[in-house]
Request: fold
Amino acid sequence: MKAYIFPNLDKNNSFEYTSEACEILHGCGVELSMDISYRSRFGELDIRFGSHSDCITDCDVVIVIGGDGTILKCAKEAAAGGKPILGINCGRLGFMASLEHEDLDMLRKLPEHNYSVSPRMLLNVRAEGKNYTALNDVVISKSDDCKIADFKVSKGNRTISYIRADGVILSTATGSTAYSMSAGGPIIEPDMQCIEFTQMCAHSLFARSMILSPSSEINVKLHCKEGTHALVNVDGNVVSRITDLAEIRISRSDLTLDIIDIKGGSFFSSINEKLMQPLKGFAGDSII
Reply:
């Protein structure tokens, strides 16, 4: 088995986690590769260094060491190459990660193929003539120069909602625990095939999230004052700055990303352990 190691060294303890994971995997006979930019940090280990794209092409599995944001960074390339992702969490939540630091010994199951795979639906987003791929969500929100904006959301030729709001979120089930949940949306089991529509701070007494079929083709049309803008944000990255009457189209992507669950029941464990308990502040004090 060949594994591509994709660490985020900006995360606390990620260097130590990466070194330990590499040692365990190498001991199991797994061939390891890593982006050449990490050679100065891990050059003493038995790792082949190459370009990010070449490493993904040549591997059997991508092992991401960081948080959910780190998984998002390589999700599109992994999905396009048909490579499953195994996440090791160094972040605060890590809903897509299967393992925590104390679980690293479970990596020995990887070359034995002793794990389950959760297929995740992705979204195709078309904005300003360009296409983007989202694992979590697309957020269309008013910019700083826009006091209020109206959004017309349609499915095919039928209007779903016409609202005045700070913005709208179209997410996958995977993204239901991200921005959509913070905006009041429901938590959805991540391997469900659907598109979730959530309104952000809508000027309405009846604003509720909707769950739409995976075959839905959603069109969001912006109405805002001349000279003002809205932002199109895909998986946490601003990809476009749009003006009045601009349209954004969201549909199911042809790509699917496989997330490895080597521990078993990782999503529900994360819900119970990370959302049902108080978060900790910088000094260890509870902040909720």
Notes: The two ends are 44 Å apart (CA to CA). The mean pLDDT is 92. Helices lie at 14-27, 39-42, 52-58, 68-80, 179-182, 266-275. Residues 14-27 form the longest helix (14 residues).
